[in-house]
Amino acid sequence: MPMPQVIPADVPERERARYLANLHRATQGSGRLMLMAGDQKVEHLNDDFVGDHVAADDGDPAHLFRIASAARIGAFATQLGLIARYAGDHRDVPYVVKLNAKTHLLPVGSVDPLSRQWHTVEQVVRLRDGAGLNIVGVGYTIYPGSTFEAEMLVEAARAVFEAHQHGLLAILWAYPRGKSVSDERDPHLIAGVAGLAACLGADFVKVNAPHGGPQALHEAVRAAGRTGLVCAGGSERGAEAFLAELHAQINQAGAAGSATGRNIHQRPLVEAVRLCNAITAIDCDGASLNDALRILHGS
């Protein structure tokens, strides 16, 4: 059953049709987001793109765009610079522009995280309209618990409002992090940052799955209210186990889709496309786990 679609009051009348079209495209009409996350080239530098467990093709940024173009996804999130460089060859892909990012070179133990905005929503709109690209939303990462959280919360709140003013979706990555945070996956804390994202007006919030499985995640889903909650996919692991966890997050906890990066792009193209299609079947079609596994294995 499709999730209810509510147009936020900060979307002006002239942009409501665009907002609904973007929501429909990113959720395949289901209200559940299937986000292919490709922002790790900044967040983790090249660590996620080479290695014994990583497909050789992943060393080339074009691999991500090929997957997003060939697979059935809701939207592909990455930095504006990559979109400007590669999206001209993949105009069929719906894009979410990450507005901020930081590397992992400064460990949390040495300094609390601060991720400042690189681009404005106005610049994103200029790219969308000037290049005719299918940009459906923007994304922003916040780190509640950091000593710099106030700066990020101000930027995030403004980005959400400005995105809605232009009919764009606003997605927040919300990770409690900093010297004052003792357990980043505490279920009650994850629920707290989900509620924070709702207060910022986000359409969707991406969180790390808390300890305790779907039952613990349900608290965060309720706290997010009308902001759809999705879980980060995390590091690459067996596809069958990943799909089983995703199915439980949606069907037991009420998650509003998924946001998956490394589990997709670290695989060869054919495998990555099949996994995307299986994820989308669970997210947007309400497919059973067995049906998703059949898609994964091409049967």
Characterize the structure shown.
There is one protein chain. The protein is of the alpha/beta class and 299 residues long. It has a single domain (13-293), classed as TIM Barrel, CATH 3.20.20. The chain is 42% helix and 14% strand. It is built from twelve helices and eight strands. It has helices spanning 16-27, 40-43, 62-70, 80-86, 121-131, 149-165, 187-199, 213-224, 239-251, 262-265, 269-285, 289-296; strands spanning 33-37, 75-79, 95-98, 135-142, 169-174, 204-207, 228-232, 257-260. It has an eight-stranded parallel beta barrel, surrounded by eight helices. α9 links the parallel β7 and β8 (257-260). α7 packs parallel to α8 (213-224). The longest helix has 17 residues, at 149-165. The protein starts with 15 loop residues before the first helix and ends with a helix. The model has no long low-confidence stretch (mean pLDDT 96).
Strand content: 5-15%
By CATH, the architecture is named Alpha-Beta Barrel
Based on helices, strands and strand pairing, what is the structural class? alpha/beta
Task: Determine the mean pLDDT.
Answer: 96
Low-confidence stretches: none
Instruction: Count up the domains.
Output: 1
Overall shape: it is globular
The side-by-side strand order for the widest beta sheet comes to: 1-2-3-4-5-6-7-8
Keywords:
299 residues; TIM Barrel; 8 strands; globular
Q: In terms of topology, how is this protein built?
A:
Blueprint (H helix, E strand, L loop, with lengths): L15 H12 L5 E5 L2 H4 L18 H9 L4 E5 H7 L8 E4 L22 H11 L3 E8 L6 H17 L3 E6 L12 H13 L4 E4 L5 H12 L3 E5 L6 H13 L5 E4 L1 H4 L3 H17 L3 H8 L3
Parallel strand pairs: 1-2, 1-8, 2-3, 3-4, 4-5, 5-6, 6-7, 7-8
Helix pairs in contact: 3-11, 7-8, 8-9, 9-11, 9-12, 11-12
